[in-house]
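Quick one before lunch.
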Amino acid sequence: MSVTLDLSRVAPAEKQTGADAAKPPVNLSGLTRPQLIAALTESGVVEHGKAKMRATQVFRWIHHRGVTDFAQMSDVAKETRARLAETFTIARPEVVERQVSKDGTRKWLIRMAPGIEVETVYIPSVGRVGALCVSSQVGCTLNCSFCHTGTQPLVRNLTAAEIVAQVQIAKDDLAEWPSDKEDRLLSNIVFMGMGEPLYNLGQVSDAIEIISDNEGIGISRRRITVSTSGVVPMLGKLGETTQAMLAISLHATNDPLRDELVPLNKKYPIAQLMDGIRAYPGLSNARRVTFEYVMLKGVNDSPDEARALVKLIKGIPAKINLIPFNPWPGSQYECSDWGAIETFAAILNKAGYSSPIRTPRGRDILAACGQLKSESEKVRASALRKLSMAAMAGMLEEEDDAA
Ligand code: SAH
Ligand code: SF4
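Model of the S-adenosyl-L-homocysteine complex:
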């Protein structure tokens, strides 16, 4: 049975004032531990002196045990549990659709609120054991010409609670509670779903703090990758506040072509982007940046472009992830021929860069999505894109072994 919860009206500024009866209850899943301490004291549910201890206890129930009902918090006094339940919520949003591929890829369509639906995909055998691809926005304000999400207007940013909920739902389905369970299936998180995470950095960074907290889900920050189309002024802040691994959607080695593929390039051209990457906090051989490069037939896939790429990223600790383009209805590109991709990869490999090309996973369930009717167009579009996410997430495999 699923529990429906409307998180859409929980604006970040309201998070600390759960006692206001006129507003929907704050979901405690979206609060970092310091925020949780503040919420518990400000609501009057917990007295000041005990707030830190109580917050850790509650945090552990939510993120270590995965409970969705305050009644299950057996070491919290009954009256306190009742007060918590009156004031806050820890319910999950509704899973409207769940699909499992023959290869083990799992996909959930999650309804955060009416009309606010996102997809989350779990890809096995990626990263240390398996990666979860999460969304940071519904839609996107940027219009990359090869990306279907870019054709959907931005609906809104997701809250930290909604980002964390994607991880919780995956863990429910994978039976990953308690979080320190042996033989876990979920080891990595990639922000490669819908949206531009650096345009929602506050919520993304709170979500990363929650997901990486060792009292809870405990996924190490070096196993969390944030992919950006290149919002240069936010790169420093991303590194400082999250210490996450960085992935850059590069896709071209010269400005005229990148302007066309990733229009944000007009604002932050390649030279500026490269300077921003070089300055990314914590960049080293053990913490390399990933360049994502979508392979578009006759557009960016020539051997000369591979050589230009090697030259462009010289001196940056990096690996390159070559993503076979996934066409969508109305898209103006084709995927490069396999031979062209291999030649491209060989040039990068010869220059010393790891450049995995991954066969997309979960084709069977995505093909089923392709048969959905037009009212589900949005779902189908993002599902198609998840094919590329599955391929991209393949890059984590080698990196993570070095951890
Ligand atoms: N907005 C962020 C993260 C989400 S997009 C970003 O652009 O990095 C995640 C990745 O999917 C990006 O590298 C993007 O370029 C790639 N992508 C988008 N559409 C694609 C398609 N049709 N085929 C292959 N990769 C695609
Ligand atoms: Fe937005 Fe990323 Fe798609 Fe570009 S590739 S439109 S930034 S989601």
